[in-house]
Design brief:
Helix content: 55-70%
Number of domains: 2
Low-confidence stretches: 261-277
Distance between the termini: 90 Å
Order of helices and strands: EEHEHHEHHHHHHH
Number of strands: 4
Shape: globular
Number of helices: 10
Strand content: 5-15%
Largest sheet: 2 strands, antiparallel
Structural class: mainly alpha
Strand order of the largest sheet: 1-2
Amino acid sequence: MGLGWVVTLQNNSFSILGNDRLEKQTSNNALFAEYLALKKGMLEYVKADGQGPLTVMGDSQTVIYQMRGIYPIMDDEIWNIHRDIINIIREYELDIHFRWVPRMRNKQADRLSKTKHKVRFEYPKDREFLVDIRNSPAIGKLRKKIAVMNATPFPTNAMYKRLHVSSKDVLSDKDLFELREMAGKKATRMVIETFPGKLNKNKYHQSQALCWMLRGLAVDLAIKKVKFDINKKKANNNSSKKFVSAKKRNKKSQSKKKSRTSNRGAKYYLNRQTFAF
């Protein structure tokens, strides 16, 4: 049985996505799975220092109405997890409101519950580092940017975009073999699994990820940085292709217009001749 939850923090404009699988020996109660998704989502919200007020939207009317005290709870298993959620609300003094929504308006969480692979976000205290930022070859503003990203639970696209090396450093001229030796087997295996293949572009992506790790960027953020650069390059290429094709279309349309206007001009001249004289 699958669980899925989405926590959207409006003040930071990002969402925490999560999912899990409920083992058969844990419970066969579908309602228990709904409650467990609610509990895990609330814990993620607390972990991300959500400031509230918090609105919980769920497509299980029973869960929502039981949390609001409208429906009674008759099952001991459900009562225990319901009590856990109430304790979380009291412990963190959450200003919370529960609202029922139809499943059509809860598509993202529903899709996550059916996703087989685990969706996981790493928080700053869970992150792995190859190099302490204090011993990083990065200097000046770059070091500050890396430090800020390492301390941010969910760096924005703008942060990834601003993260770049203004000039060559000691890692820029290292080949892939040297970078692998410096990073170690675990990091090397991770980048190979993320960017598989022996083509030059795959090796380039691997080397870039290792470079960012060795500059002090967290392992997970270094991989996301390279993925961001790949997607950005693809988007730029697509936009440039559209621009070129649009330019070609404009040239063709202009040439057609010229031929049409020239023909129209000739006809207009003949007509004018006919009617004027």
